[in-house]
Amino acid sequence: MSVARSSIVTNNVRPEPDKELRDIAEYVHHYKINSDVALETARLCLVDTLGCGLEALKYDNCARLIGPVVPGTTVPSGTKVPGTTYQVDPVRGAFSIGTIIRWLDYNDCWLAAEWGHPSDNLGGILAVTDWLSRTYRSSGTSVIPFAKPFKIRDVLESMIKAHEIQGNIAIKNSFNSVGLDHVVLVKVATTAVVSKLIGLNYNQTIDAISQAWVDGQALRTYRHVPNTGSRKSWAAGDATSRAVNLALMVQKGEPGMPSVLTAKTWGFYDVLFKGNSFKFQRPYGSYVMENVLFKISYPAEFHAQTAVEAAMTLHGKMAEAGKTVDDIKSVNIRTQEAGNRIINKQGPLYNYADRDHCIQYMVAIPLIYGRLTANDYSDTVASDPRIDELRGKMSCEEDETFTIDYHEPSKRFIGNAVKITFTDGTEMEEEVNYPIGHRLRREEGTPVLLEKFARHLRGRLPESQASEILNISGKELDEMAVDEYVDLYMMK
Questions:
Q1: Residue 299: is the preceding peptide bond cis (ω within 30°)?
Q2: What is this structure's pTM?
Q3: What stretch of H or E contains 215?
Q4: pLDDT (tens digit, 9 = 90+) per residue, 168-213?
């Protein structure tokens, strides 16, 4: 009893805000974005992310989750949800946009000690800038005092900063190792950049960020066997919408908690991070956006991207050799530690979400069909008995070299190797160190990414709308009003 009593904290003097909070607020309010590489990458990220959102709307299990809580509700001057007719409040708008852009797991990715998809933050950024732009256009500042017109350049700079906050914390700090989902970083990053967008000052931004850290954090249960499910596809939408709500609460006067991370017993570090404080490799800048990874060719969990590339190459080589999957005796996959931990799955796969997070499934499909599309995770395709038969012949293991290169800042590789042994004793092997979406292949990947964007546009919008969007680029895009740009994506 005496030991327990001695650990009770009774000093009620409020400390200075935690340094981690101050560093983020300082960065958001005062850092100037002057990297041409970051801005150009952000433009690609913006269109790719919106395109993936349009594509996701083809799937009813995504489309039915978004829009107003009360069917038929339209919010005047509210956030518009691209690819739909919905106009909703900014919190629900952030959820809707955040959900459609993440649903297919087909746009950008950041891999480090913690994984994630920094483009998830666009849900909150676009919802708020669109809402405030429409409000200012309709009523100036008479209804919302902090309303103002935003340009796409504002969105791009906010994206760069949100990417940097989420990705920089992720470099050295593993949330998955304590069971927390990476969307905690979406919540923190979106809260920080939205705070500035809605006019919060430096101290208020610190308050808002503290609210994001103290908010209940999601567990990774829905991403792993045996509970993998579709919540992983809307978890980021939930996080970015909560971020918008928290920032708006601080705007209305809600105070923060200055030692939310470091408070003894009750702070984030003691409660959720095993008493450890965050470590940082570098100061906040524009490094993450400059080095972000794009999913260009395949809608596959990123740790499997190069495995899919390898399997596609092997499919072609098998055809040239006159072999089919019926001739395969075994398949060995070598991957990184993270890939081995997240997507190495044996046994039955119960749903779409299970399949798109199974490396064996993502290798089997291209070996059999010579393709991997979002539809290949459907129940219809999965019913082909050859898939599970081939999965049963597969082994998957960590290759330490791939793991080392995965964490090396100058490389940031995501290597995989696929080796096939045939029934006649011959073998084929293909190794790919980094996918087409890697920065080192940006010149090669950009035209393919823009083709993907055009395909997604034309899959949802009439040709006239798609062409108008495709004709906007570079500085012309930067100077366009946010609400006018979003209008181009709306269903008529």
A1: no
A2: 0.90
A3: none
A4: 999 999 999 999 999 999 999 999 999 999 999 999 999 999 999 9
